[in-house]
Amino acid sequence: MCGCRARLRCRDTRRLGITTRRDDIRLCVSELATNAVLHGLVPGREFCLRVIADDELVRIEVRDSGCGPLELPCPAGDADEEGGRGLLLAAALSDDFDVTAHDRGKTVWLVFKVTSAH
Fold it and tell me: What is the pTM of this model?
């Protein structure tokens, strides 16, 4: 899956019954998918996007096959530099954020408190 397909998959969050925070969720999916493509893939492998929604929470998980720990960049970095702020933005917009390490790769996950139409 590429970053563009991941964004398209989450474009219509109403289909999931989500009535709040749709823009935050779509932006964070885009950021995590882009990071997985640019920094977390071993050649010949893809990443996995999971979106789990219920009446109160949406959990976004992006698993890649890359090695090495994920480190958040320093928020006081150079504001003119391109890149490096996507994870900080995702962590700030979400209600919970963490990384789960695996034998191969990692899963970056975010949780959003939402209001559902159900």
Answer: 0.78
C-beta pairs of 68-72 under 8 Å, 24+ apart in sequence: 69/99, 69/101, 69/106, 70/99, 70/106, 70/108
- How far apart (Å, rounded) are the C-alpha atoms in residues 70 and 39? 10
Q: 3-state class of 4 per DSSP?
A: helix
Instruction: Determine the Cα–Cα distance for residues 33 and 8; give it in Å rounded to an integer.
Output: 11
Q: Coil, strand, or helix at residue 103?
A: coil
Largest Cα–Cα distance of the chain, in whole Å? 44
In tens, the pLDDT along 22-54 reads: 889 989 999 998 888 887 877 777 889 998 888
Beta bridge partners of 18: 116
Closest among 42, 60, 43 to 6, alpha carbons compared = 60
- Residue tagged 């995702």 (tokens): 90
Decide: 104 and 63 in contact? Cβ < 8 Å: no
